[in-house]
Amino acid sequence: MGFFKLLSSPQYERLPTNALHPKSRFTLNKSLLMYGMYGVLGISTYTAIVLWCSHFFTKKPYSYLDNFEHINNIPLVRDERHWSSSSSAVFSSLYSDSFALAVAVLGHSIRRANVSASMILPYIETQVSSKALCIAQSVGWKTHPVGLIAPPRDGEDMATPRFRDQYTKLNIWKLGEELGFNSAVYMDADTLVLRNFDELFHFPWEFGAGLDVFPTKDARGFSINFNAGVLVFRPSQSTFEDMKSKLETSNFPLAHAEQSFLNAYFGGKSVRLPFAYNANMVIKQRSRELWAELTKETRILHYTLVKPFWHNKMPEEMILTPEELQALAETTETRDGGLYREEIRLWSNAFDRMMEDQGDAINACY
Fold first, then answer.
1. Are 178 and 21 spatial neighbours (Cβ–Cβ below 8 Å)?
2. Could you list the residue ranges that cross the membrane (predicted)?
């Protein structure tokens, strides 16, 4: 009796959406009817078998909730009594010449957005040429050599060889304190600043990052792990030393290098940043509607799936000429049926503005 009452009772209307579900109300009632039929056919037994198999044979994604290690003794909130707005910095990184123009465009976009912080660029001295440094310095980056931090377990299980350099990112904690900064934002070279984000320098916690996004859904439909392309952090020599001491002993998945380690290290102490501070292009693939909403307020765009300045066959020591880079960007526009054409053009326009402002200095580097 209760089942048929549920079928006949009025259903709540869903909120408006652009998704293609014009008959959602009918589908709900139909689904209820189907469940009633399945109950007669013994679907509960079938479901139990499926769930049992899923539990034992499906590999669960890594989560610090399931693999928690007590390796972080840093307080959640830093003492703000000596905080100064003049001691803030934006960090990026340069590990090969092939990303020199990308980091230059990023730097120029930071300045164009009137971000009120110093721009600090750590680089691996043995892997970056004077030409690449010249290009980066021409837009205002203050370059600092740092030592390579080798991957743990000699790089075993790494998703791609180019991730070998990524643990070097941890140097920003040490370098930031050495240079006198107590508030900082880090951005990968494949990001672009669209709007000012000075509010992040008033971030009271030790560490924050945006949720990661993947092209395909997992069983839960979301991930609690964060993406390490944009970080808000408190520079600290002691934090750096603590992280380094635990690289080899912490039990984290090695495939995605420093991102996996930082997820393990900060775990439940990390603060989630809104997607506007790390607009991962995978979001557009997953939800055009969400992406359209994000573009109204996006501060930092992250070129995760397509890079208008780089392709995976480029030698690490290669620096494209401005003309070669423009040609590559135009080709990239056609990727994935032109899905990311608008975002690629945002980057190309940013490159054009940089060349208008700093073209003479950049061309002189060649």
1. no
2. 32-52
| Residue 39 maps to a domain | no
How far is residue 288 from each of residues 134, 186, 211, 213, 292, measured CA to CA in Å? 39, 27, 18, 14, 6
Flag whether 115 is in a domain: yes
3-state helix, strand, coil in the chain (%, to 5): 45, 15, 40
CA distance 208 to 241: 19
User: Would 55 be classed as within a structural domain?
Assistant: no
Question: 302, 305, 223: which is closest to 270 by C-alpha?
Answer: 223
| Rounded alpha-carbon distances, angstroms, from residue 44 to 29, 36, 38, 52, 139 | 20, 11, 8, 12, 64
d(CA 52, CA 56): 7
Sheet holding 191-193: strands in order across?
A: 191-193, 300-302, 279-280
Euclidean distance between CA atoms 323 and 32, whole angstroms: 60
- Domain harbouring 355, CATH code: 3.90.550.10
Query: Residue 48's Cα: distance from chain center in Å?
Result: 38
* pLDDT tens for the chain, residues 1 to 366: 554 444 444 454 554 544 444 343 334 444 444 445 445 445 455 554 544 454 444 555 666 546 666 777 766 555 655 445 569 999 999 999 999 999 999 999 999 999 999 999 999 999 999 999 999 999 999 999 999 999 988 777 766 777 889 999 999 999 999 999 999 999 999 999 999 999 999 998 999 999 998 877 655 555 678 999 999 999 999 999 999 999 988 888 888 899 999 999 998 899 999 999 999 999 998 888 889 988 989 999 999 999 999 988 899 999 999 999 999 999 999 998 999 999 999 999 999 999 999 999 999 999
Does 46 reside within a domain? no
Domain count, the chain: 1
Residue 210, φ and ψ in degrees, nearest 5 = -90, 155
